[in-house]
Each structure stands twice: as C-alpha cells, then as structure tokens.
Design a protein that fits this description.
It is built from 18 helices and 21 strands. It folds into two domains: 221 residues, Dipeptide-binding Protein, domain 3 (Roll); 320 residues, D-Maltodextrin-Binding Protein, domain 2, CATH 3.40.190.10. The chain has 604 residues and is of the alpha+beta class.
Length: 604
C-alpha cells in the first residue's frame, strides 16, 4: 500500500524541558541568545503538517528555534487540506511518512524520489541511477548502493530530513482468540485464515469481529485500489503467486504456488501452481464454491492487467508492476531441466520439485487437467524487462491478487477509453456489495474469504469453501464481521468492551492502556513506516539553497525525539532504513548548523 501522509497521532503532549509551548517559543524567538540573534536576522522556516502530527511539529519547532531559526507552523486539520497546501507549495518542509508495504527497498524509494515517480517532487539523475542500479541487484549486493543513495538523498543534497521509524502494534483479546494465531507482519496486512478462537467449537457459529476506520471501499478489484480502505480486505480475498513472511522474506507458503525459482540472469521467474483452490462466489448472501479452479490462465490475465495502465479506468497500481514484460504458461518440461537457478547450478525443475509429494511428470496448459497427486502441474513463467529480483515482493502485494479471467471479462464489458462512471459498473464496484437497490454481488475471489455484503456500519465476509481444504491454510473461522469505527479511541473502547477482538495499528501512546488490561495482549515490532521532513523543491529558498536545507537537517535531534516517545520510536536515515541497514546515521550538530546558516546568509 502506498501511504504517503503525515504521521497520524492522536493528541499533543508537552515534555517539560524539551518541547516548549507555542507561546514560550514565540516569546523567546526574538531575544534568546541561543536563537541566533534578533527576529529580523533569523531565517524563517515554514513547517507544514496536520493537526494529528502536532506533537512532532512542536518538537521540530523547538529544535529549529534553538538552532537559530524563526519557525512558522502551517497546521491543517485533515489530509485533503494538507495536500492542497503542499500542492500549492505553501511550505518549506512538510511532515510526511511512508510505509513500505511490499517489504522491498525499491518500493521505499521509486515512487518517492525518482524523477517522475508517483509522489516524487525530485529531479536528480544521480538518485535515479542509484534507484535503478539497486533494483537489479540481490539483497547482498544492494546494501552499498542504498548507502550511496542515502548519502546523496540526505547528507549531500538534504532533500529530506529523517525523524524516526514507528513501531507496528496490534492488540488481541486473549480471552477470545489464541494470541499465537494472530499474526503481526512487518509488511503484509493482517492475515485472517490462521486466526482461531480459544474455544474452537465457536469456529462455525461465532463471527471473528475486527475493525477498520474507512467504510467506503475504493474498489474490490485489487488493481484499482491501494489504500487503507481495501488493503486488508483484498489481501484476504485474493490469493497471490507468492507471499511474504512476517519478517518480509519471500515464501511460497500459503500462496498459489507450491514452489518458485529465479532463473540464471534474474530475468525469469518460475512458479509451480497448486490445484486445490477454487473461486468463491456469493449466492443469497452466502459463500459457495463456484466450481472454477484458480489456474494459469487467471494468473496470466491478472498480471497482464496489473502491468497495463490502460486495462481499467483509474488503474492505481500499475507502477508496481511495470517491470513485468511477459507472463506465460510453460508446457515443455525440458525447459525446466535446461534452465539453471540463479542461486546455483541446479535446474529450475529441481527447485520447483523440492518437497513435492509427487514429482512433475507432465505440464498442462488447461487448468482443469492439472492433478498434482498424479504429477500433472501448471507452471507459470514471469519475465521482467531487466534483471529485477524485487519483482517477487511486488507479486506478493495485494494488487497482484489473482482474479477470475472468465468472471472479470464477463463484467467489464465497457470500453475503457469511454468509461462512464454514471452508467458503467466495473468489477469490484463497492456499490454492488452495499445493501440497497444497487446490490448485485458479482465477486469471484481466489483467497480464503469473500465479502458478502456491507453497509455503513459493518461488512460481512464468509470463508471460501474451495480454498485449500484439508490443509493448514484452510481458514479456521467461517464468518468475519468487519466493523467500521472512525477513530482510535472508539476502536480501543470497543476492544476493551469485547465488541471487537483485534485492534490493528495501535499507536504508541495507547500501549499503556492495552498493557494495563488483563484480557488484552499487545504485539509490537519495528514497522516499515518512516516519518521525515520533505523539503520544497520548487518555489522557496530551501528549494534553491542546499546549505539552508542542510541547516534544517542537522538541527534535527533524533535522540530527543526518541526520548519524548519513551523509546517507542527507532532512528531512521531514509525510507529504506527499516529494510536495509546501511550504517549511515544522522547526528544533530549545532555548530554545523551555525556555519551553514552563516554561509547561506552571506550568499544572499
């Protein structure tokens, strides 16, 4: 999920001796000797953020004032107004954050900092080259490249000023659910299928009650949405070729593939498909097995449309899959013998057969002819535009979920170029699953659950009866109720009252409340979410003068920030910090700030 937004925190706390109140700062800004002289001599910096990030803005304002700046806060009430101010260029530095939901560093930089990226305001050819170079390398090779990228991005050019990495936390009602069955993953959304009741007899009778904030769902077509309204939902409704472990390692476990292999040269990727997943559909608001198997034709169709910007109107995830060149089914078994693995001298066939109960005797093009017990398999090959090992992380993203070729083609009969939102009803339109006169559920889902119906209060999901039956990945609980609760305080109250059983995304300032409740268990880990200041690169002095940007950069004291949050944040250097340990570190340096400000002022 792309999440480019200011960090959402619930309230403002003042730490005595560290963070001053607004009035304190304003009163002292013009006379404090530490501030670098009178107000007329000071350089003014405008910080843009949301009211929910006011804690961070207060800390930064205090640090900047102590280093000789005059600070103006531009605090907006919501993301829409924040974005309008950002687009208008009404800021010197904007409080921003990014969560890498694919578990790979390319996702952490490409959209943000590459020239022409979805969210990029930069244009730096050296950074572009480093991003592209790292994308072709294996994890062992790209550490040094990302270190060089951080050096350019942060220290040499000061395009951003890093603040911290957040924790990712969730709370579980351990009286109702087995805490060990509720996974906490760095990147992927909460997986529903392993969750189980303490009292297993309730699996078929009681719903698993979860929550999320957004009741309006962008789209239930996985390529048409990449936001908090649907990421968890689509992750659990559509199986993918590959998965991520909880600590962001690539795995075939629980995916459509039994095994996968990277061929020599890092441009060809092979997947051997399992034959025990059917699409679910809804009849009379209940889940039934459609009788249609999920197979290679669906994979090819799904990935071809995922990479094609023009396959649907308002395609929101095509940039994640732009490195896919071709997707095809392999029917010649000798190919698997001839092609060597990237990691050694063994054949791709050896990798694909590893651990299988029955070795490959035949490859079939028709998914209905696959029979794994008899050695008849389907193998899909994905070819990339260039060596690109990180393609596997993108294939684990919810946007690479496998849809039914037959069903989607039967629904999406409109002309993409002349699509009319008032007349055409695309596959995955949330109105088709919303109770009322427009309800007409046409979903076919390949994952463990399917959405039956929703309203403004809740959404009801049922177990896919054709999903990996009899395996460890078959969903434990039949029915899931997803309640829409708009704010964290209300969600936490619902958890403590037993109205929901898991609260996903508990902020650090609520940890104490969870830990004090004997029936709750807090699960926490370092997240892939990084908060940072993004400098204006268009129409302000900071855009023209890197000395001024560096003066702001070296005013940031991460030790003070971590102290304020009682150690529940982690130091960051860039958005790749949670994923790649480069050894770089940002240190506050008041002497350097003074020198840089003097250099900037003398150049005016």
């Amino acid at each position: 999920m792309k999440k480019l937004f200011p960090l959402l925190l619930a309230f403002v706390l003042m730490l005595a001796g560290c963070v001053k109140t607004k009035s304190d700062v304003n009163e002292k800004a013009g006379s404090d000797s530490k501030s670098g002289g009178s107000a007329s001599e000071q350089v003014e910096i405008e910080l843009l953020g949301m009211s929910s990030g006011e804690e961070d803005l207060n800390i930064l304002r205090d640090q900047l004032v102590k280093n000789g700046f005059k600070v103006k806060l531009n605090i907006q009430p919501d993301y829409g107004s924040f974005k309008a101010q950002q687009d208008a260029g009404n800021f010197d530095a904007a409080l921003s954050s990014w969560t890498t939901v694919t578990g790979n560093p390319d996702y952490a930089v490409r959209s943000l900092f590459k020239t022409g990226g979805d969210y990029s305001i930069l244009a730096d050819t050296e950074i572009d080259d480093l991003i592209d170079k790292a994308s072709t390398q294996t994890p062992e090779e790209y550490v040094e490249t990302y270190k060089q990228l951080e050096q350019r991005l942060v220290f040499d050019k000061a395009y951003i000023a890093p603040l911290y990495i957040s924790l990712k936390s969730q709370a579980v009602n351990k009286d109702v659910l087995k805490p060990e069955s509720v996974r906490l993953s760095k990147s992927r959304a909460l997986a529903w299928e392993p969750i189980d009741f303490v009292d297993e007899s309730k699996r078929g009778t009681d719903p698993l009650v979860l929550s999320q904030t957004m009741p309006t769902l962008t789209s239930l077509d996985p390529i048409k949405g990449n936001d908090g309204s649907i990421n968890m939902i689509n992750t659990n409704m559509y199986v993918r070729l590959i998965n991520l472990t909880d600590d962001d390692k690539i795995t075939s476990d629980g995916s459509l593939s039994l095994n996968h292999s990277i061929a020599e040269g890092n441009e060809e990727y092979y997947f051997i498909l399992r034959d025990d997943i059917n699409f679910a559909k809804i009849t009379d608001k209940k889940a039934v097995d459609s009788g249609e198997r999920v197979g290679a034709d669906d994979v090819i169709f799904s990935l071809d449309r995922a990479k094609n910007k023009d396959s649907v109107p308002d395609h929101r995830t095509y940039s994640l899959h732009e490195h896919i060149k071709d997707v095809e089914v392999v029917t010649d078994l000798s190919v698997l013998d001839q092609v060597k693995q990237s990691s050694g001298s063994d054949s791709v066939r050896a990798a694909l057969e590893n651990g299988l109960d029955t070795k490959i005797s035949e490859l079939v093009a028709d998914k209905t002819q696959a029979n794994n017990k008899e050695g008849k398999y389907q193998v899909v090959k994905v070819t990339t535009t260039e060596p690109f090992p990180q393609v596997l992380n993108y294939l684990a993203h919810q946007s690479a979920g496998i849809v039914s070729k037959k069903q989607v083609e039967s629904i999406n009969t409109y002309d993409v170029a002349t699509f009319d939102v008032n007349k055409d009803i695309p596959y995955g339109d949330q109105n088709t699953v919303t109770e009322g006169d427009k309800y007409n559920n046409t979903l076919y889902t390949s994952g463990p659950y399917i959405l039956s119906h929703k309203n403004d209060y809740e959404a009801i999901f049922y177990k896919n009866p054709g999903y990996m039956k009899g395996t460890e990945h078959e969903p434990k609980i039949e029915n899931i109720k997803l309640r829409f609760i708009k704010d964290m305080d209300s969600s936490l109250s619902a958890l403590r009252n037993g109205e929901i059983y898991v609260l996903y995304g508990v902020p650090e300032n609520k940890h104490e409340t969870v830990e004090s409740d004997s029936k709750l268990k807090l699960q926490s880990m370092e997240s892939n979410g990084v908060t940072y200041l993004l400098f204006n690169t268009a129409n302000r002095e900071v855009a023209k003068n890197e000395d001024l940007r560096k003066a702001v950069l070296h005013s940031v004291n991460q030790d003070e920030i971590l102290s304020y949050y009682h150690g529940k944040k982690v130091k960051a250097v860039s958005t790749v910090s949670p994923l790649v340990k480069t050894g770089n570190e940002l240190k506050a340096d008041p002497a350097k700030v003074k020198e840089l400000l003097e250099k900037y002022q003398s150049s005016k």
